[in-house]
Amino acid sequence: MTRYSKPQYLTDFNDDPTVWSRRFGDEYWADAYTPLSYCLLRHWIANISLPPSDKIHNKFRYHKGFAYTSSEYWLDVMGEVPTSARLPGVRAYLCRPDQERFDNLPSSAWKNLVFLSRLTPFNQVDPTDGITKNHKAMTEWRFTVERDFQALVETDLTAMRLDELLTAFTVWKERGDYHFVLLKAGQSAWGPIMTQALDGLLRKWGSEEAAARSKVLLGGLPGSLTLETNKDIHRLARQIEDPELKAAVRDPARAGEVVRRLFEGGDDVPAARTFREFIGKYRHRGASREMFEDRWEERPEMVVDLIRGFAGQESLHDPLALEEEKRREREVMTAEILETVGNSGGGFLKTRIFTWVLGMAQTYYLYRENQRFSLDQILFALKKVSLEIGRRYREAGLLEEDRHVFFLFEDELFDLAAKPDYREEIKRDASARRAVYPDQVGHFPPTFLRGHEEYEEDGQERPSADAGTGATVFEGLAVSPGKVRGPARVVTRIEDIGLIEKGEVLVSSNTDPAWTPAFINLAGLVIETGGVLCHGAIVSREYGIPAVTFIPQATRIIKTGQTVEVDGDEGLVRILD
């Protein structure tokens, strides 16, 4: 029998001279992903590419659970972008020879015009691309997703036929399509453009010092769903007054007991009622976009781990007090800048321009975090539908376990129902992929591929020695200002968040909105991936925590308990012992 047809991204790359990079994948797939989750995200990300989406579909590669993208794709994309709009973050995705090609890319007036036409309010392809319309469209979309998600939660999926379940999978995938179509303009274009524009105006009409403090103008903004979640956890922790229950919360081994007592408690017990309401509101949240990983509804013990950081001790950062502090700082700096701009030549017009740019920068700053709430609902809906499909396949002998459904590529999900001749082979492949998944999680393969050759560039990911102190020094990306020293706490799983103690420096591969409650006790943050607008960077600035990102191998080299210094001004991390 002929082997069933594999998708293009699983083809043989032996003779391919292209260099493939994991660095773009780190922005969306910071950990290993199952085949089904990979297929969905790969498809959706095609919708945020600036060239036609079919141009990116053959530019992804799935390798050991991680996503790699072709350097040729990024060079093609940036070749169509005006020189001034070529983001340095994209350059960082590339190997050194391709970075030189990036620096020497030609530009033309025609390409610049075509690029700008895609982003104007007059774009006839999708009118929601316009800067004044896109964020409004996303807000409306969030309400639509919330409504449809609640309807799915109330649906008895076991009563649906298999063909209806497969159709539901497609429908929710299409909801993800539209979500990422909105993100193409909002997150990929307007967010970075407005942030850069704000920095530029501060530098031109204010001062270099003002530009260096530009993130203050983006702090303490009302309406952040991530910080709202954090405040809800804070309130929940404060309602746990029973001494015995408090003791159980502090003991990681008793998380299951805490969940049971809170779910069984009557409505006359404030903490019990609030806990049930919290799970109902945030049931779809988890530590990753990966569908295989648990959500709070499925394993509410994860919420207890987050509560532990608030319970029984004074936190390093009170989220309510911090929000108020950041709001005051923002308002003071805004008033100072407006006074400076208003008193300069052409002050009236400049003030109008600056106020508009600031408003748009703030709007799209919140946009990036808040859209994730809806994306998590879409992903959890797909997970629920997929698990029911997996149960049907397992009962029919087509899969060994329900959860093996996540180790099918999307084509295989449908082929199991439609192509009987290939069922045994697909079943074996799914089982084999599940078997190696634990080894892929938390183990980053090398950054670059050429054919099947894995490699790192010379000197890459190697720390240096400080000439004065002899301390081991990593150079990364400064994303939240300040300098701090403290004991390191290496955390690679959300289950271990509850182990973080006040004053520690969190070292992780990445962070996710579900990690936010841990920030109340952090002195500093070091993560292996992400840029200035990644989740960890945004929350660190809100909490006034020095943070450095883009430190590959940090979780392997830095050990829990070692004293580290995080320099969020210079982008340096030092191991002091």
Task: Kindly describe this structure.
The protein is an alpha+beta fold. The protein has four domains: 1-119 and 396-460, no CATH class; 204-223 and 320-365, no CATH class; 225-318, no CATH class; 464-575, Phosphohistidine domain (Glucose Oxidase, domain 1, 3-Layer(bba) Sandwich). Helices cover 50% and strands 10% of the residues. The protein contains 20 helices and 14 strands. It has helices spanning 25-28, 35-45, 71-79, 88-91, 96-103, 109-119, 131-153, 162-206, 208-212, 225-239, 243-250, 255-264, 270-281, 301-308, 319-342, 347-395, 410-418, 423-440, 535-543, 554-557, and strands at 19-21, 60-63, 66-70, 448-450, 453-455, 464-465, 472-475, 477-480, 483-490, 504-508, 522-527, 547-549, 563-567, 572-575. Strands 6-7-14-13-9-10-11-12-8 form a nine-stranded mixed sheet, with helices on one face. Strand 6 and strand 7 (472-475) form a beta hairpin. Helix 2 (35-45) crosses helix 8 (162-206). The longest helix has 49 residues, at 347-395. It is globular.
Binned, the helix content reads 40-55%
- Strand arrangement, major sheet: 6-7-14-13-9-10-11-12-8
Average pLDDT across residues? 86
How many distinct beta strands?
14
Helix and strand content put the structural class at alpha+beta
Give the overall silhouette. globular
Poorly predicted tracts of residues: 1-5
Q: Strand content of the residues, in percent? A: 5-15%
Distance between the termini: 60 Å
**What count of structural domains?**
4
* Gyration radius over CA: 24 Å
Report on the biggest sheet.
9 strands, mixed
How many H/I helices?
20
